[in-house]
Amino acid sequence: MKIKPLGERVLLKRIEEDEQVRGGIIIPDSAKEKSQEAEVVALGTGKIGEDGKKAAFNVKVGDKVLLPQYGGTPVKVDGEEFILIEEDSILGVIA
């Protein structure tokens, strides 16, 4: 991986939904809503608490998570799209 998040940031790769065809009409990518599901690709260095110790992340690499509709910073590396987001902005882990 060429990107190493810093601090309490998490690097995510959006999980693309399958193309849906309704009544024989293909919906173009520009009209589709972006998926709110993503996979954790890398974790930052961790948040340092007031006591000087690093706080553990609540997610781990490989977890599938829910994102807010609008949030995070889109990043493109080698033609692949990723999202950098603070761990506190992640809505939940998909079991």
Describe the structure.
- This protein is an all-beta fold and 95 residues long.
- The protein has one domain (9-17, 32-93): 10 Kd Chaperonin, Protein Cpn10, Chain O, CATH 2.30.33.40.
- Helices cover 0% and strands 36% of the residues.
- The protein is built from no helices and eight strands.
- It has strands spanning 9-14, 21-22, 25-26, 37-43, 64-66, 73-77, 80-86, 92-93.
- The strands form two sheets. It has a six-stranded antiparallel sheet with strand order 6-7-1-4-5-8, with no helix packed on it. Strands 2-3 form a two-stranded antiparallel ribbon.
- A hairpin with a 2-residue loop joins β6 and β7 (80-86).
- The radius of gyration is 16 Å and the shape is elongated.
- The two termini are 25 Å apart.
Supply the number of structural domains. Answer: 1
Q: CATH superfamily assignment?
A: GroES chaperonin
- With helices defined by DSSP (H or I, 4 residues minimum), what is the helix count? 0
Q: Into which percentage range does the β-strand content fall?
A: 35-45%
CATH class: Mainly Beta
Describe the biggest sheet? 6 strands, antiparallel
Q: How much helix is in the residues?
A: under 10%
Keywords:
single chain, 95 residues, mainly beta, 10 Kd Chaperonin, Protein Cpn10, Chain O, 6-stranded antiparallel β-sheet, two-stranded antiparallel sheet, 8 strands, 36% strand, elongated
